[in-house]
Amino acid sequence: MNIYREITNFFNGIKTEKRIIGSSLQKRNLYAIKLGEGSPTGIAVYGIHGREWLTARLAKAHFRDGNKQGVVGSIWLVPLANPDGALLSQKGLTAAKGCPYFRYLSAYSNGELRLWKANARGVDLNVNFDAEWGTGKRNVRRRGAENYIGERPFSEPESLALKRFTEEISPDYTVSFHTKGEEIYWHFGQGALQSARDYRIGQALSMATGYPLRLARGSVGGYKDWCISTLKIPSYTVEVGSDAFTHPLRGAAFWNINQHCGGALVALSAAVQNEKDDKRRKIYASGDCSGETWLEAGGSAHRGGDCLRG
Ligand SMILES: [Zn+2]
Fold first, then answer.
1. Cα 43 from Cα 125, distance rounded (Å)
2. What band does 288 get if pLDDT is binned at 50, 70 and 90?
């Protein structure tokens, strides 16, 4: 079964809160499914890169296991953020029937699209966000399988839908699952306090997955980068799956991925709650921080009446 059909069936079978948050260039649905209830609120994104479609199955596992083990608060899962790209990688040109870019896609590498990461018109969605857009070392200005930034930030229906949904939900944190390499990116030039907070929470995610925290190398314009720089919330990119696997990762790699990442959302949501509790204790202890919010600062000690705005 193709991954879009698989995720559509999964979505249709869910009885709890769910939404269609937009549609792709080829008019496939972009789904969101709510896990848990209340605060803190997170968003987890899967499959924003076409060839990394196996992560959509991690979304299913996270939903199933999260319901059993209980995430803290609630997390909206976006199980397949780039359905067109996923199907191009999985099914090749047959997935592009009726697409206005069919001829382009057909000419591209003679229709060999297994390694395709972009959407159906060759924009890499994870460099299309408004976060130092277009300044990355690997950014390119021509359509292709990867790294094309698009005509402007949020030029694509998929990235725009994710932006709007995120702004509407106003989450406390976000996490995105990619393949591969077994590491976690957590930084995007945030200031000292925000950075300390995000590192602490990231350590819990690192412990849960067994993947180390890493600094991204010259990567900009991603969903995580936008969440960190614009929304000022902790945001992580988790690269799942050993480098021993080759792209695109297939079913056989899933056992390995789930072994490491099955508990990621439970651990992450608990770490965010801990951080908020810890911060609240410090605010009470300091006495006069009535206007303090989670978004404004990062869980460090009270400083001189300025409520942690470091
Ligand atoms: Zn990726």
1. 17
2. low
Q: How far is the CA of 70 from the centre of ligand 1 (A)?
A: 27
- CA–centroid distance, 216 to ligand 1, in Å, is 13
Average pLDDT over residues 231-236: 98
C-alpha span between 233 and 171 (Å, rounded): 8
Output the CA 282–ligand 1 centroid distance in Å: 38
Q: How far is the CA of 104 from the centre of ligand 1 (A)?
A: 22
C-alpha 87 – ligand 1 centre gap (Å): 15
- The domain over range 3-88+157-286 is classified in CATH as 3.40.630.10: yes
Among 64, 75, 54, CA closest to 13? 64
Domain ranges of the chain: 3-88+157-286
Q: What angle do CA 108, 112, 115 make, to 5 degrees?
A: 100
Burial (CB < 10 A; 0-12, 13-18, 19+), residue 289, is buried
Q: Please give the distance, rounded to the nearest whole angstrom, from the Cα atom of residue 26 to the centre of ligand 1.
A: 20
- Strands ordered across the beta sheet of 235-240: 18-23, 29-36, 74-78, 41-46, 173-179, 235-240, 183-185, 213-214
pTM above 0.85, yes or no: yes
Instruction: Return d(Cα 272, Cα 171) in angstroms, integer.
Output: 11
Between residues 281 and 262, the one the model is more confident about: 262
Strands 173-179, 41-46: pairing kind: parallel
